[in-house]
Amino acid sequence: MTKPIQGVLLTLLFAVAAFAEDGNGLARVARHEPKMSYLDNGVIRLGVDLNLGGSITYLSKSGSQDNLVNSWDFGRQIQMSYYSGPVPFRVEGKEPKANWNFIGWNPIQVGDAFGNGSKLLEHQNDGRKLYIKCIPMHWPLDNVPGECTFECWFELEQSAVHARCRLVNNRPDHTPYPARHQELPALYTNGPFYRLMTYTGDKPFTGDAVSRIEKRKGEAGPWSSWTATESWTALLNDDDFGLGIWAPGVCDYKGGFAGKPGKGGAHDNPTGYIAPQPREIIDSNIAHEYRYDLVLGKLDEIRRYVYTHADKPAPPHYRFEKDRQGWTYAHAIDTGWPIRGELNVLMEADDPQLIGPVGFWRAEDAGTLVIEAACHSARNDGRLYWRRLNDAEFSDARSIACPLNSDGDDHRIRVPLSDHPLWRGPITQLRFDPVGSGAKGEWIRIKSIGFEK
User: Fold this and answer.
1) Which site among 195, 280, 302, 350 is 20 to 30 Å from 20 CA-CA?
2) How far apart are CA 172 and CA 224, in angstroms?
3) What confidence score (pLDDT) does residue 31 get?
4) pLDDT at residue 402 is higher than 70
5) Sign (positive/negative) of CA torsion 428, 433, 434, 440?
6) Tens digits of per-residue pLDDT, 259-294?
């Protein structure tokens, strides 16, 4: 557990002590020796612990001792966290901790469930910018470093933290594991910040009423998932003050509150949680980057910050020049990282699917889909599916035929959508099935997917 450091106590160091487990099987590290590095612009104060991979363990108003960040165990803080296969994940005969057996490959920035901290490789702080590089630890395993490096860049702007993060992977296992939800990043706050607020409606960036996310009846575990159509969520106290996170372009979020709400500090178990959680494929050799902003303030201040900095919703145009743009697959794989100007997808199983990221745009602004692709297949029975806001699944009713020219040459395929009776209102996701069933040696190479009005 990260010991909170506040006010004049910021320079105190704590001796290492053994970790214990609480009643939920969480690895709680009683004490460790923090080594802090800070940025302070006179409005907010940000602290990272260099003995915990440079993760964020402190965030408050300047001059205040009210740290918002929870550090009950090494799995909290504000930190980078990635997921992939296999499940379970074993290394050199080491078995994952029994209660974390389901997690699989999961390097995290702080340390592992056994109390081993990550190794810092580099740290720079010139008072305006802070940079760290570390080797993360696999959360479910005892003292197993990740086969990768994590990097973070932090800057302050008034009441906000600008963060940029990068994973550079070097796994010896080159298996193309399927996409999983990531935590980009994982964010944990203290007990007073228990009110989970966001916007989930169909009128983003209009000042429409926000929503409180609360645990739904029958929902397993302490967390919920939702579509944040303005790409932000905040954890607030009873005075409407707290911490917001904005992940540009990400609408897929997860979070909630665990424990008794309203009380508790960085040492204590009660905690709020938020994670922007897009699905991503994490290749064995990938260099994956993302950005987010943390905003300290009242709810209206957090939302106003997002309104000032965000691009307004518009139909997407996915150009696969250097990455997958958040697209993933079912019953298909591509030829792996790096991406060089196109997705090269092997269609050798039944019902191959290309699944787009969760977003938000309006059907009336996107009358025709345009796909730039070359396809080699014996079939031309492609189909496009879409989900509207609040649709739980894709369905045949919300789909349209999308026949391809399968001669292996480049083509520009136009799919008219405006006349379809269910192509209406807010759209949140696409799925493209190039063929109904693939066969050995069949493929599709896609340069872009986008819309014309």
Assistant:
1) 195
2) 34
3) 60
4) yes
5) positive
6) 999 999 998 999 999 999 999 999 999 999 999 999
Asked whether the domain spanning 317-452 has the same topology as the one spanning 7-309, the reply is: no
Instruction: Tell me the domain boundaries of the chain.
Output: 7-309, 317-452
Strands (E), 110-267: 119-125, 129-135, 137-138, 148-157, 160-169, 180-181, 183-190, 195-198, 211-212, 223-227, 232-236, 241-246, 252-258
State in words which class domain 7-309 has. Answer: mainly beta
pLDDT in tens, 68-127: 999 999 999 999 999 999 999 999 889 999 899 999 999 999 999 999 999 999 999 999
Provide the token pair at 399: 């789909």
Count other C-beta atoms under 10 Å from residue 38's C-beta. 14
| β-bridge mates for residue 180, sequence order | 280
Length of the chain: 453
Q: In angstroms, how far is CA 336 from the centroid of its own chain?
A: 21
Question: Can you give the pLDDT at residue 28?
Answer: 52
Give the residue among 149, 143, 147 at the shortest CA–CA distance from 175: 147
Architecture of domain 317-452: Sandwich (2.60)
CB atoms within 10 A of CB 143: 13
User: Tokens in use for 318?
Assistant: 């996915």
pTM of the model: 0.92
